[in-house]
Design a protein that fits this description.
alpha/beta; Rossmann fold; 2 domains; 5-stranded mixed sheet; 12 strands; 30% helix; binds S-adenosylmethionine
Length: 249
């Protein structure tokens, strides 16, 4: 299990570092970063994730660099992701939120998104990125009410949702065999190192109890998590398998 640490490199952010370390289940450190360690580093105007290979810059904990092009770009509802979510949906639960790339895209596409992440260190990075959006007026106008972060197990949280979401979106953990990811290289590596691999089937069962439409992101060419999906939307790197409740076809 990689070591998880937090450091403030700004004299006024020591108490932020303590609060973040507690939420993330991490230690406060300011020494050299060891191999296999991941450190959330707080600067005056930004937060980054550093590892032992980081020199002047770490991985930004921010949604500001996500490609949010409209038109025929990432945010187009005509792309496979938008088509998989469907035209009538208003609310989505991203039950495997990771660093929130997909959750942010979905919120920017106009849906109200609740993002669930069970690993406390990853969930904390996700919350930091959400708060960072305050620094970008255009992003914050969307994410202030469009994205809610919840830390915990999706199976437990999905059971207690009221009202029910229109769609549950799942992007289960990469397995060793998974090739390719729609995420940029560094975030994909970080998630692979930090997140535990769980069972996909119980998660899909919980998702199907919670919503009438479940969208599962899969690598193109990979098998479905289970059975035959009702609808399939193919992209270049990934595919979206859609499972519908009986009667909602
Ligand atoms: C492949 S990553 C998701 C990447 C994400 N779509 C993104 O855009 O950053 C899968 C994430 O789901 C989380 N996860 C897996 N099973 C979960 C569960 N049962 N409840 C909550 N989170 C879960 C893992 O900790 C991991 O961070």
């Amino acid at each position: 299990m990689p070591r998880r640490t937090v450091e403030s490199r700004c004299t006024t952010r020591a108490s932020d570092a303590e609060r973040i370390a507690e939420a993330a289940g991490a230690e406060i450190r300011s020494d050299t970063i060891e191999d296999g360690e991941y450190r959330i580093v707080l600067f005056k105007d930004r937060e980054e994730l550093w590892d032992s290979a980081s020199r002047r810059r770490g991985m930004p904990l921010s949604f500001q660099r996500i490609d949010r092009r409209v038109g025929a770009g990432n945010l187009s509802h005509k792309q496979p992701l938008g088509r998989a979510i469907g035209a009538t949906a208003e609310t989505i639960v991203d039950a495997t939120a990771g660093l929130g790339h997909d959750a942010c895209l979905l919120a920017c596409m106009g849906w109200k998104v609740t993002a669930i992440e069970r690993d406390p260190f990853i969930a904390t990075m996700l919350s930091i990125a959400h708060h960072d959006a305050v620094r970008c007026a255009e992003l914050w106008s969307v994410l202030r009410d469009g994205l809610t972060i919840r830390s915990g197990s999706a199976e437990a949280i999905l059971e207690s949702l009221d009202p029910r979401p229109d769609v549950v979106f799942l992007d289960p953990m990469f397995c060793a065999k998974r090739r390719g990811s729609a995420l940029p290289k560094k975030p994909a590596q970080v998630l692979q190192a930090l997140a535990e691999v769980g069972e996909d089937e119980p998660l899909l069962t919980a998702a199907r109890r919670a919503a009438d439409r479940v969208v599962v992101k899969r690598p193109t060419g990979g098998p479905p998590i289970v059975g035959d999906p009702d609808l399939v939307f193919k992209g270049r790197l990934v595919r979206y398998d859609v499972y519908l409740a009986a009667g909602s076809h």
